[in-house]
Amino acid sequence: MHLLLTNIKELLQVRKDPINKVSGADMKVLPTIKNAWLLIKNDVIKDFGNMTEMPTFDGFKHIDCKGKIVLPSWCDSHTHIVYAGNREQEFVDRINGLSYQEIAEKGGGIVNSAKKLQETNEEDLYTQSEKRLLEVISQGTGAIEIKSGYGLTTEAEIKMLKVAKKLGKKHNIAVKTTFLGAHAIPPEFKNDKDGYLDVVCNEMLPKISEENLADYIDIFCETGYFSVADTNRVLEAGKKHGLQPKIHVNQFNIIGGVQAGVNHNALSVDHLEVLNDNDILALKGSSTMPVALPSCSYFLSIPYTPGRKIIDAGLPLALATDYNPGSTPSGNMNFVVATACIKMRLTPEEAINAATINGAYAMGLSDTHGSITIGKKANLIITKKIPSYGYLPYAFGSNCIEEVILNGKLM
Ligand code: NIG
Ligand code: FE
């Protein structure tokens, strides 16, 4: 189907010359066209411009966008949406005074989700995860990264990645998959972390790579989970199988993981709720994207990633949800964008850049996603009638989305 959008109040993130990310002061700039039209042919953006210069088009389904804003779909570069059950009880335990770390030490947390997932068959896991994918698509997400890491056995890790791949195929949405076998130490290996890492590197990785199930390699580099030495080992092994690193670092403690990520040419380093000047220095001049996950900070009541400081240091920043059962049971990118403005002091322009083009970069998709550029995927959000784009983060609890278009199709 071909679509023609007319009378668009404002078309956001218009990049005639393709860029793959924006950094520092450039993040304050969000190029737009007011009173715009946009033409979609099949699944791509064919052309766009100002209404005063619109050529005549025949044979297109027409959508009048009067009073509405159009922007590229959100690019969510960090999620764990394939999981089984939920961890509502741990949420209540935290309200009653336990910390996230204390819950994990008592056998809750990631290993709790792994137990549930191991007991869930592939079909059921698919059905549970599909519900989440459909929800985030309706909330404007048009490309998504999905991690494993709630399996913690070869069989269960493979099951997760297969479900993630199947979701992308069935729903025709760009899905990038990440192998996160080193997410936690399973109880069977409680006193034998190296033994578990042997399984991750010598058993899981070769199988996953042989079946082409992952694009990236990840590890939870954190006190009580995996050290910098473990990180070096796993990333090295992943790279041998052609997987670029995207890692969990600096969520609770600074142990040198950011520098390790940069040394391994990580595509992104994610979380960064705690960050020091050496970390910022390490990121400077690198091609590694810092990724903030403000919904995780919100849900766990932990510090917010110093996004303002990161951008003011001249670095880029991407925003993602971290949708998972333990630390962030929400995949709403609209909330992420608003929270980045409210709690991290990003301007609306910076937050929208971080959630579109920089998110696309953090999952290797900026050639096809993340901006209004001729030839890129027609993945778009059409808002309701709103006063201006700043209203999106301002009205943080409202649903401002009227329609979403995925690969040229109205959803
Ligand atoms: O990104 N921090 C590590 N992993 C996930 C949460 C894991 C969980 O609690 O289930 C995260 O926050
Ligand atoms: Fe995560």
UniProtKB/TrEMBL annotation:
This is Imidazolonepropionase. N-formimidoyl-L-glutamate binds at Y150, N324, G326. Residues 69-410 form the Amidohydrolase-related domain. 4-imidazolone-5-propanoate binds at R87, Y150, H183, Q251, S327. Zn(2+) binds at H78, H80, H248, D322. Fe(3+) binds at H78, H80, H248, D322. Its main location: cytoplasm. One of its GO terms (biological process) is L-histidine catabolic process to glutamate and formate.
